[in-house]
Design a protein that fits this description.
homodimer, Dihydrodipicolinate Reductase, domain 2, Alpha-Beta Plaits, 3 domains, eleven-stranded mixed β-sheet, six-stranded parallel β-sheet, 15 helices, 37% helix, amino-acid biosynthesis (chains A, B), HDH_CS (chains A, B), threonine biosynthesis (chains A, B), NADP (chains A, B), ACT_dom (chains A, B)
């Protein structure tokens, strides 16, 4: 129980879905924070472009401004929360808040995924901190776990479902047998997908989170541009059904592994065993495996987005900073960002098993040149399955490979595309070796 | 990247499975901690009763003692790790380490589950801290999440699989159709269960963890004695098979909920839907749901025991303390333990659905007095199913109830036991309303 209380003033820039959640969480929990932690947490000033939003959230007119400069310029504000997203003026908000000696809490994964080294250096030099729990996994406290509870470990793998929109779409495709376009349209109607769904369905959002999490986990700089990225637009109902028959499930995974050849960082549709914990994560929920050499496999599950879950992460960061400020403890500056200490491994060096679905000309003798193309590239086939979807002209054939190298599989695909017998290479989906995530972990006594 | 380094000396008392893991983790990661955090973490002195264990772990003779007093008396030691378990001399180790101004890290859930108020007060008065991440959920960083990342929330529920031995036994009973005694014997042979399995199979271990986690989550004192406890000895293969047919799975859950009538804290075999995330947690793994009013449902999954996972939690706590010591930041004393601010709700006030399996006399007319016993106590039946296990004399009949109050169900069972038609009340298993775990959470925009 706290013996003293102290006021900590917060400035909030952006009152959208998450900003509104933050304003509400701070208002509704004020008395709890006071009694449990001795922190009188006050939303001193909020800014947004629409004044009516402030009224809707119960923010008094004197605590509202349409100009974010008013927030960072307020000398009584200790912590600035940046929730407008995008590059500009978010970058300028970071710069001026840091220059004014204020800590910054942000959920801006796009910006932090690319520029944490620049912003982190600024903060380190100014003696303030940047907190970004909400930028990776919404309400799931994975950043905190990597920075604190799991620090005894050499981390081996971060892998999981890092985007709720795509998991919602894939879950509905699987449960209802629908195709991507139909579910996307419905998801947009229901508010689970944006009008412009690119950042989600093409993997940008998950790649930003992979960059942030792998930088923290592996103590080396990984930016969003380093992360190989492939979205879910090409995943079909037929692939999902085939996966199910083979005992697999298709998820858009973000994966980062520390390997002898460098950091393997990628986002792509992935087949995983149907009895794997990640296969049970449905709808808009997120889950991340964090595998350490001592702890082995851990997984963190929760809402990856949404007003209140994301606000939980933002206000959690605010309270951590406020606790230091209120107790008079010097929080110390942001540590200087880790430089790049490990190379990024090319996707071409990935070794895994592959699922390849071809649309082929439906006649005797088609298979011979196709199989030869695999053999020519040194890719070994483990199973072939012709689907019953023929229209008399073409039909689908699924090939599973033994472990192969990505660059060889790409050569196979190029060769197949050139064959008269092949109408198209319809799908190439990597089958993830989930056991490899724990390679290098200690054996227990 | 750290700019300065500082030595932090650790004393370790107990070199059993977990203590050995801690010694190995500290030795193997020394250089990583130095380069990543600027902490030169040294095992200055270890104590155990068997000197040969020190040699086995590569601990130099001058850093070993058979007398734990040597460890707490060493003025160069900043942090004492207590890993001997039990009440004595563990209590004396806490007392003398705290009196000597040293922080204490411990995995002693039995002691902390009952006496954290006493030990926490000692630490608060002495200006040192007690850390116990390893006491609840082995390597799963749930204590840290409740104390830091989730602090913005009013916590609603902590519920999960908190004991690996019982989850291993129930998983094998389910997958192999075996009875409890057979799996227990095999688990003991394989080292998954102790020679004296009481603490695990009767629920004491899980109850200690419920006490620790609910005290932290709800900011009120809950001790192990407050937690209703029922183990898995009476769960039969027949119950597991019946559950499966009904779409359920049986798990030993530890559950703590904040309700209007007080803290509902209990450990017992529980039926949960087969598609629930906890149903997918098999073998010796643990998983805990932590539900907050802002974040909604989160779940933490990992190894609940074992040498290295538990060492991960212990050394994580050590590094957090060491980081403060090395940076010269005053960590502040342990906060005074929360007093009891909410009553403990009696198990008799629980309202849920029940699965009741009776062994009844196999003849016409048996059902009428049985059904009357339910009606007399005001417990409404939702389904009756006679199993095909009759031996000509008796057979099993399963009753499912609508939501009923525990005390009424106990009255039903007493009345049934007294009937000539009932050979025995073979099983009473609570069907958990998992949706109620999120009651009180915010609705997202």
């Amino acid at each position: 129980m706290p013996s003293t209380t102290r006021t900590v003033n917060v400035g909030l820039i952006g009152l959208g879905t998450v900003g509104g959640g933050v304003a509400r969480v701070i208002a509704r929990h004020h008395d709890e924070y006071l009694s449990a932690y001795g922190i009188d947490l006050r939303l001193k000033m909020a800014s947004a472009l629409e004044p009516e939003r402030a009224a809707e959230l119960g923010i008094a007119p004197e605590a509202f401004t349409t100009d974010w400069h008013d927030v960072v310029a307020d000398p009584e504000i200790d912590i600035v929360i940046e929730l407008i997203g995008g590059d500009h003026p978010a970058t300028e908000i970071f710069e001026s808040a840091i220059a004014a000696g204020k800590h910054v809490v942000s959920a801006n994964k796009a910006l932090l995924g690319r520029r944490i080294d620049y912003l982190g250096s600024l903060a380190a030099q100014a003696g303030v901190q940047i907190r970004c729990e909400a930028a990776a996994g919404g309400g799931i406290p994975i950043v905190n776990a990597l920075e604190h509870a799991l620090v005894a470990n050499g981390m081996l793998t971060i892998a999981g479902i890092l985007n709720g929109t795509t998991n919602y779409i894939l879950s509905r495709m699987a449960s209802e047998g629908l195709d991507f376009d139909d579910v996307l349209a419905d998801a947009q109607r229901l508010g689970y997908a944006e009008a412009d769904p690119t950042a989600d369905v093409d993997g940008f959002d998950a790649a930003s989170k992979v960059a942030i999490l792998s930088s923290i986990a592996f103590h080396t700089r990984v930016t969003t541009d380093d992360v190989y990225m492939q979205g879910i637009r090409n995943v079909s109902a037929a692939d999902i059904e085939q996966a199910r028959e083979m005992g697999y499930c298709i998820k858009l995974l973000g994966i980062a592994r520390k390997t002898a050849e460098g950091i393997d960082a990628r986002v792509h549709p992935t087949m995983i065993p149907a009895d794997h914990m990640l296969a049970g994560v449905s709808g808009a929920m997120n889950a991340v495996f964090a595998v350490g050499d001592a702890v082995g496999e851990t997984m963190f599950y929760g809402a990856g987005a949404g007003s209140f879950p994301t606000a939980s992460a933002v206000v959690g960061d605010v309270l951590e900073l406020a606790n230091g400020i209120a107790s008079g403890i010097d929080l110390g500056p942001e540590p200087e960002p880790f430089p790049r200490t490990a190379p990024i491994r090319s996707i071409e060096d990935l070794e895994t098993r592959y699922y390849i679905r071809l649309s082929v000309v439906d006649r005797v003798g088609t298979l011979a040149p196709v199989v030869a193309a695999f053999a020519d590239a040194g890719v070994s086939i483990s199973a072939i399955n012709q689907l019953r979807d023929g229209d008399g002209t073409t039909c689908s054939v699924v090939f599973l490979t033994h472990t192969a190298r990505e660059r060889d599989v790409q050569r196979v695909c190029s060769a197949l595309e050139a064959l008269d017998e092949v109408a198209s290479v319809a799908s190439v989906i990597r089958i993830e070796d989930v056991d490899a995530w724990s390679e290098g972990a200690e054996e227990n006594e």
